[in-house]
Amino acid sequence: MKIGCIGTGAMGGAIMRAICKKYDAKQIKVTDKNTKMGKAFAEETGAQFVEANKDVLDCDYIFLAVKPQFLGDVFAEIGNAIPESAVVISMAAGVKIEKLQSWAPKARFIRMMPNVCAQINEGMTAISYNSNITQAEADTAIEILSTAGKVEVVLEKLMDCVTAVSGSGPAFVFMFIEAMADAAVRCGMPRAQAYTYAAQTVYGSAGMVMESGKTPAALKDMVCSPAGTTIEGVAALEKNGFRNAVIEAITAACNRSIELGK
Fold this sequence. Notes:
The chain is α/β, with parallel strands linked by helices. It has helices spanning 10-22, 35-45, 68-78, 97-103, 135-145, 159-167, 169-186, 191-212, 216-223, 229-239, 242-260; strands at 3-6, 28-31, 48-49, 61-64, 87-90, 108-113, 123-129, 149-153. An eight-stranded mixed beta sheet has the order 3-2-1-4-5-6-7-8, with helices on both faces.
C-alpha cells in the first residue's frame, strides 16, 4: 500500500509522522510547496520527498493537508489526473465532500478532521465519506489514522461541530492550563512546577472521563466536598461566566468552520 501527502505543515506533518512510524516509510511520498520543509520532513521520517503534487497520484491513499483557501489551486493542477482507484483524504476545515467533488468529479473522497494532539499519538480524528468509498477502504483509512490516536466515523453534517470541539479545542485547553499555571504562580508556585501541576491535572482528569464511564458532572461532584475549597472555586468560575465562555468559544469556532465551507 502506497500513501501520499500533499503538505507537511503542522497538521499534515503530525499525521504523517505517526503513519511513518507504523508503515513502511519508503512507501510514503510527501510533497510541499515549501521545498525546504518538505525535504526536512522526509529526512526526519524516511519518507520519499517528491517535487510536484502530481507525483503522489500513484498512491492508494492520498492525504490533502492543505488549507481551505489553497485547495482550489491544488485541484486546478491535479483534479483531472486523480485516478478513480485512489482514496483522497482531505483535512481542510469546513470544505464539504460535495465541494471537493466539484473540483475533481472523478475522484473519491474521505473528509477528516484531526487535531494537534496527533503529534503525541493522542489525537481525536473524525471522518466522513460517501457511498463511493467501500467499507474496506474506510476501514483501511481508519486503521491508517489510528496511528495518531482515536478515530470515529461521523455524519458529515457534524463536521463543523467536530472542527470546533476537537479541532480548535486543544487551543482552549492550552489557555486553561496556562491560566491555572498563572494562578499557581500567583499563589507562590515556581513557573515550571506550575505548568507540570496544571497540565498533569488536566491530563489525568481527561483520563478519568474517558475511563470511568461517569459524566463530567458526576466526577466534579465527587471532588466538591461540603463547604470545601473546590466548591468555592466552582462558585468563582460560575460567577465569572466560565461555562458560557466555553460554550461561546465552541459556537464561534463552529460558525467560522461553516463560513469557511461556503
